[in-house]
Amino acid sequence: MKIAVAKELDPAEPRVAATPDTVKKFKALGIDIAIEPGAGIKSGLPDQEFTAVGATVSADALKDADIIIKVKRPEASELANYKRGALVIAIMDPYGNEAALKTIADAGVSAFAMELMPRITRAQVMDVLSSQANLAGYRAVIEAAEAFGRAFPMMMTAAGTIPAAKVFVMGVGVAGLQAIATARRLGAVVTATDVRPATKEQVESLGAKFLAVEDEEFKNAQTAGGYAKEMSKEYQAKQAALTAEHIKKQDIIITTALIPGRPAPRLVTAEMVASMKPGSVLVDLAIERGGNVEGAVAGQVTDVGGIKIVGYTNVAGRVAASASSLYARNLFSFIETLFDKASKSLAVKWDDELVKATALTKDGAVIHPNFQPKA
Ligand code: NAD
């Protein structure tokens, strides 16, 4: 069996789907690994690092591979190089991209979306949303600190005292929790909000203060899967009224609020941005899904009257080596479940819940119930 590691087409994608560490693990299972030249270079992994652990590096790496691993969903031009019947495993961004999924199905490959992995104990080690969101949360604070013209910690010096920066984190999932922890480590005074009641205790356990409208709707805002529900217009208005006053006094706002399969909720209006002090910084981690902050622009830092709104996309990719390392391990753990160790061959159990949750296409058709082409 052969696995190929694709080089990403998107010049803005620095991550790679394998590392020397995971190549070693695949080799130990008796799996051959071929890498497209330069696939790891933007993650600090030149080709020699891969050949040193037994991978082959070749421009033809993908041609006869049984499994192709990559970071982003393959484009039509890439699919032409894949063997029919091959598996391709990546972060597929399937929501709203049904046409692209149909193109993959037409190429006769079986595509798996890593971000649809169920959040069950068994699949924790394959949870790419968590591994990448954790790094994005960390990096969001670093970006904020870089854009902020002041220090984060309180500093008492002979020349006078500098107050600690006030950081407000909106959305306390994996990214938000890491943002809180990172901002606290830098010495900021941190507050946070979320619509899921379970987050209150988590925020407090990190030494931050929790702020939310704790009404009946809030008490039921978490789905059985642990995600947020889309809140009513009434709740959002109450939430905005509460946070508006708080936002005026903040130096840094980091937003991470998402609802699976829906556009990101708008949490910070242009008016709220304008109410902040010049020099303040907002980092919108939800920008790829429309953004939480009005005025945030994907891929850019916008200056609104001296207030900076950071809209970088692929924030985990800004810590590329760490992001690749964790993503590659997520992939290895999933592929291990698709492999029969005795016969050293591919053995996909199509009724396994991990496969059912992530498989998008098979035998020329889109098979995932959530992404059926519209009639
Ligand atoms: P996410 O990226 O989908 O959303 C980020 C946060 O935004 C969530 O906490 C959500 O509640 C919040 N949010 C949504 N609408 C909001 C609004 N209007 N105002 C404020 N906040 C809003 O979330 P995530 O990081 O993927 O985490 C979701 C949950 O899954 C968490 O409980 C997390 O601990 C859990 N989780 C479980 C596992 C596992 O069991 N294997 C793994 C990872 C995460």
Automatic annotation (TrEMBL):
GO molecular function, a single term = proton-translocating NAD(P)+ transhydrogenase activity
Keyword Protein biosynthesis assigned: no
Q: Kindly provide the name given to this protein in its UniProt entry.
A: NAD(P) transhydrogenase subunit alpha part 1
Domain Alanine dehydrogenase/pyridine nucleotide transhydrogenase N-terminal: where?
A: 4-136
The source's domain of life comes to: Bacteria
Chain ranges of the Alanine dehydrogenase/pyridine nucleotide transhydrogenase NAD(H)-binding domain: 145-311
Q: Which PROSITE patterns match?
A: ALADH_PNT_2
- Protein's UniProt keywords contain Lyase: no
The entry assigns this protein to a family as follows: Belongs to the AlaDH/PNT family.
Q: InterPro entries, alphabetically?
A: Ala_DH/PNT_CS2 (IPR008143), AlaDH/PNT_N (IPR007886), AlaDH/PNT_NAD(H)-bd (IPR007698), NAD(P)-bd_dom_sf (IPR036291)
Instruction: Give, as one word, the top-level EC class.
Output: translocase
Q: Which GO terms describe its cellular component?
A: plasma membrane
Query: What does it catalyze?
Result: NAD(+) + NADPH + H(+)(in) = NADH + NADP(+) + H(+)(out)
SUPFAM superfamilies (alphabetical): Formate/glycerate dehydrogenase catalytic domain-like (SSF52283), NAD(P)-binding Rossmann-fold domains (SSF51735)
One of the protein's GO biological processes: NADPH regeneration
Q: What does the UniProt record say this protein does?
A: The transhydrogenation between NADH and NADP is coupled to respiration and ATP hydrolysis and functions as a proton pump across the membrane.
An example Pfam family from this entry, by short name, is AlaDh_PNT_C
